Amino acid sequence: MICFLGIGSNIDDRLSNLNQSIALISDDLHINFLQVSSFYESPPMYNLNLNIFLNGVIKISTSYTPFQLLSKVKKIELKMGRKESVERYENRIIDIDILCCENEIIESNELTVPHPNIKERKFVLEPWCDIDSNYIIVNENRKVKELLAMLPDSLKLRRVN
Q1: Catalytic residue at 88?
Q2: Alpha-carbon distances, residue 140 vs 49, 127, 158 (angstroms)
Q3: What tens-digit pLDDT sequence spans the chain (161 residues)?
Q4: Is 121 a catalytic residue?
Q5: For the chain, which terminus, N or C, has the lower number of CB atoms within 10 Å?
Q6: Going from the N-terminus, what domains does the chain have, and what CATH number goes with each?
Q7: How far apart are CA 49 and CA 128, in angstroms?
């Protein structure tokens, strides 16, 4: 199954954190790393008191189900030092979100796929366009580049690599 993951960090060496998360994902025998986007600096979106984020998108293929993949990425976050918290939007060493898993549509307490906030997140859509701008988000029936074009131009991201 082809899946896209959003990765982000806004603590310490953000670039190193993203690269470490990619290495840990790639180390799994059930995951084949395919592609990574450029990384982009973006301001915090929901809690404006947070540090500036560094974000990217990776494309993988996996034999995991979406729920198994969720378990795997949560373990990676914990291994990297992310703390369990009741606070939804806070500074974090790493955040790994499952964006899409082919044509899967899942709505549960643990996992929603496609990710419910894709269409409002330039920090997801812009890097995603780097690697697969024509990918169609199943529940939106739109390409990633079409969703990106629908966002206001006011939010500027800075490519860092």
Answers
A1: no
A2: 31, 18, 27
A3: 999 999 999 999 999 999 999 999 999 999 999 999 999 999 888 787 889 999 999 999 999 999 999 999 999 999 999 877 656 678 899 999 999 999 999 999 999 999 999 999 999 999 999 999 999 999 999 999 999 999 988 778 889 97
A4: no
A5: C
A6: 2-159 (3.30.70.560)
A7: 26
